[in-house]
Design brief:
The chain is α/β, with parallel strands linked by helices and 357 residues long. It is 46% helix and 14% strand. α2 (48-53) links the parallel β2 and β3 (61-62). 48% of the residues are buried. It binds uridine-diphosphate-N-acetylglucosamine.
């Protein structure tokens, strides 16, 4: 069986690492796995460090697409993917999550009548203003095999008439958290030394719905500053998209501790040590849940609705007062129940590809 994986953005490299391990663990009929990096994320701290930390070989193909508007970026990926897939002739094209790299891979592979499988299928925020929501819907509807992380994802696909193609595998990001936790603790590092457990809050902000809306962004950063002044220090690994927008707006924070984007292992350590986490990232919401740290989501809805049980995750949107109040109440979260599988989602994915091949 030959699989071509298409990835390009930071969270996809984490999911890809789990699939690479599952491929390596196969005995019997071998699996040939070809990795294509679209180049959507190109800064060393957003890409190379993930391949190194997660023990992956460099990608077999790098398309070097880089930044652009949605149309430009996606179109350029499609142009470069088509001849590559024509020469690789895979049995399966494997897509991950909800980025523009997912969308480009889905459209090209489906039009070439290649068999298409989607890792992290069935997630819905039901907010069509999010580019990620549009990408997921297209990827799910074009895929032949839908690999779902949770029963909620299975149910979402059933509502869209897609349950005949859906398989419940568990969540590959949960596998990654289990695989790399020990390594992260062992390696430690300056960030872990600087930030002792439960003394700080961890924040991330990068979603277009926040960065591209000046009022929302101002409210969120004002709330983070107020939390840093009145509750506990706030550590913010800053995504390049957000850095650009903040610099252009002339923003200067009062109290937030801004650091460059973190590697996966550093992020895991910070997440597990934080008193609470504030984020608009889907992946970080879930990682907070894995390490049983209260999460405040800086969005109006979440596709990971399981995390909302028992106040483990609270939706505060971009409402300054709600965010600050949620930080004060973060101690009341939990208990956390197991909802993301048994750490075998990667192996289940390869098994599903084999049995549907
Ligand atoms: C993308 C995904 C989002 C995912 C996120 C993780 C889409 C539509 N969005 O958002 O779902 O949660 O990745 O990080 O695919 N930039 C750099 N260096 C880089 C990468 C980006 O400077 O290595 C800057 C560029 O100015 C670029 C901007 O960030 O224009 C946005 O990058 P892009 O990949 O389009 O989207 P993300 O915001 O990273």
């Amino acid at each position: 069986m030959k699989i071509v994986s298409i990835a390009g953005a930071r969270p996809q490299f984490v999911k890809l690492a789990v699939i690479c391990r599952a491929v390596a663990a196969q005995n019997g009929t071998p699996v040939r796995h070809v990795v294509v990096h679209t180049g959507q994320h190109y800064d060393a701290g957003m890409s190379d460090v993930f391949f190194q930390d997660l023990g992956m070989n460099p990608p077999d193909h790098h398309l070097g697409v880089g930044s652009g508007s949605h149309g430009e970026q996606t179109g350029e990926m499609m142009k470069r993917l088509e001849p590559l897939l024509a020469s690789e002739k895979p049995d399966w094209v494997l897509l991950y999550g909800d980025t523009n790299s997912t969308l480009a891979g889905a459209v090209v592979a489906a039009k070439m009548s290649l068999r298409l499988a989607h890792v992290e299928a069935g997630l819905r925020s039901y907010n069509r203003r999010m580019p990620e929501e549009l990408n997921r819907i297209v990827a799910d509807h074009l895929s032949d095999l839908l690999l779902c992380p949770t029963p909620v994802a299975m149910e979402n696909l059933r509502k869209e008439g897609l349950c005949g193609r859906a398989v419940l595998t568990g969540d590959v990001m949960f596998d990654a958290a289990l695989m790399f936790r020990e390594q992260a603790e062992k390696r430690g590092g300056p960030l872990a030394d600087a930030w002792q457990p439960r003394t700080f809050a961890l924040a991330t902000v990068h979603r277009a719905e926040n960065t591209d809306e000046p009022d929302r962004l101002r409210n969120i950063f004002e709330a983070l500053d107020r939390i840093a002044e009145t509750v506990c220090p706030v550590v913010l690994p800053l995504h390049p998209r957000t850095r650009k927008v903040l610099m252009a707006s002339g923003w200067t924070g009062r109290a937030i501790h801004v650091i460059p984007p973190c590697s996966y292992l550093e992020m895991m350590l910070l997440e597990s040590r934080a008193r609470f986490i504030l984020t608009d990232s889907g992946g970080v919401q879930k990682e907070a849940y894995f390490v049983k740290v209260p999460c405040i989501t800086l969005r109006d809805e979440t596709e990971w609705s399981e995390t909302l049980q028992n106040r483990c995750n609270v939706l505060a949107g971009a409402d300054q007062e709600k965010i600050v109040a949620a930080a004060g109440n973060a101690g009341h979260a939990g208990p956390w129940t197991a909802v993301y599988g048994d750490g075998e989602a990667g192996l289940n994915t390869i098994a599903a590809l084999r049995s549907h091949g």
